[in-house]
Amino acid sequence: MDSLKFKTDMAFTYGEPSPMGPGIVRLVAPNPSPLTHRGTNTYLVGSTSLAVIDAGPESDEHLSAILKAAGSRPITHIISTHAHRDHVDGIAKLQAATGAVTVAYPRDPDASRVALENSPSGRYFVDYDYAPDIAAYGGDTIEGADWALTAIHTPGHAPDHLCFALEGRRVVFSGDHVMAWNTTVIAPPEGRMADYQASLEILLDRNDDVFLPGHGDRLNDPQRTVRAYLLHRNWREKSVLDALTSGATTIRRIVPQVYRDLAPQLIPAATLSVQAHVEYLIEKGLVASDLPLTPDRDLSPL
Q1: pTM to 2 decimals?
Q2: Which domains does the chain carry?
């Protein structure tokens, strides 16, 4: 059985590009936090013209690093894995500096929004109004002078989440869907556990050499990691159900049973993760509750 082993070490220097393979460099944005690890990863892809994958937060320091790494090569595309602010807030200034077109999965303007009190980070973390110049859906290919990226729609962490496969190479830019340093936060209503697990199955069916994630270091055995993620989510679901049947009859009571010795700043994210699991258990017909779910609403196993 594959076990989930986190890789939290990461060799890099802020502002300096790290080679990730031929025609790929990584820059780490200076926005470290308990939810972003060392910071958001920005990738420059190409040799003669460039795609920037995930421009990162709004940061003049990071913008300067991107432009310096590009040098005389034009940045023609700014591609986003999803519209969480630590990935897209830097787009406006980068586009103004380069004239590049923006590419992303278009969000549903009528979709439910996460209330501030339910945010895992204590602030609004989604740019609900972000609208790309080019809408990309699963299976679409975006091309530059010497690179091509095919989108893989992987909702779960976010409804608009895309991974990108680099054509001709067994490399996938996995965004926040699969990372080496930690599991992905699934924060309802932005995140949905049923979608997340289905999206993991999509990546499990591939045969890739490396995933380059939105936070943390590269994954060199990606399908094994995906399998471990699925096993971990199944184990977590069982832990939630066991806590419920043992008498923890609300999400708030389940959290300390499932996440022991949790740092206080991570309790909101853990609460949302348990909610996502409970929602999935309700969909499966294993748990009952009045809706909408709240941390203190009574739950009962079926």
Answers
A1: 0.93
A2: 18-232 (3.60.15.10), 237-301 (1.10.10)
